[in-house]
Amino acid sequence: MKNIFKPEVTDEVIGRINSLKPDSQPLWGKMSVAQMLAHCCVMYEMVYEDKHKKPNALMRFILKTFVKDAVVNEKPYKQNGQTAPAFIIKEDKDFNTEKQRLIGYINRTQQLGGEHFDNKEYHSFGSLTRTEWNNMFYKHLDHHLRQFGV
Q1: I need a labelling partner for 77 at 20 to 30 A (CA). Which of 84, 113, 135, 138 fits?
Q2: CA–CA gap between residue 65 and residue 67 (Å, rounded)
């Protein structure tokens, strides 16, 4: 899996984001391109902002036991997979605003580097290795950029 903490990978991902247009259409799924960008920001909001409620102890146990591996391993996500409630974006979003937010989060993550994330706690899964963080960040972005053909 590509390493999102490397500048050249970050640049590639941002290039793909920059090739999106406000009227880009998904190859699968129901989200608009602006909703997809907002959806991708949610993971970063959980890292950098106190915006989303943390799951209770029972839910965290369930997520760590049954969901974590599928999110942090190197196997690509399937099309039209199940989405956690916090990641569901129903309202319309502004394409340029969401695009700039996402690029800002990606750049911040790359600048902090893998060392910063090694054994850092994630909102839903507890402590993750830098490899698990990388897989989660990169795989999610790649999945949705492929969803929009970039």
Answers
A1: 113
A2: 6
**DSSP state letter for 53:** P
Q: How far apart, in Å, do the first and last CA atoms of the chain sit?
A: 17
The domain spans of the chain are 7-147
Buried b (16+ CB within 10 A) or exposed e, 9-27: bbeebbebbeebeeebebe
What tens digit of pLDDT does each residue of 85-118 get? Answer: 889 999 999 999 999 999 999 999 999 999 999 9
Phi, psi torsion values for 126, nearest 5 degrees? 80, -155
Confidence (pTM): 0.95
d(CA 34, CA 101): 11
Rounded to whole angstroms, the Cα distance separating 119 from 116 reads 8
- Residue 84 pLDDT > 90, yes or no? no
Structure tokens at 77: 């996500």
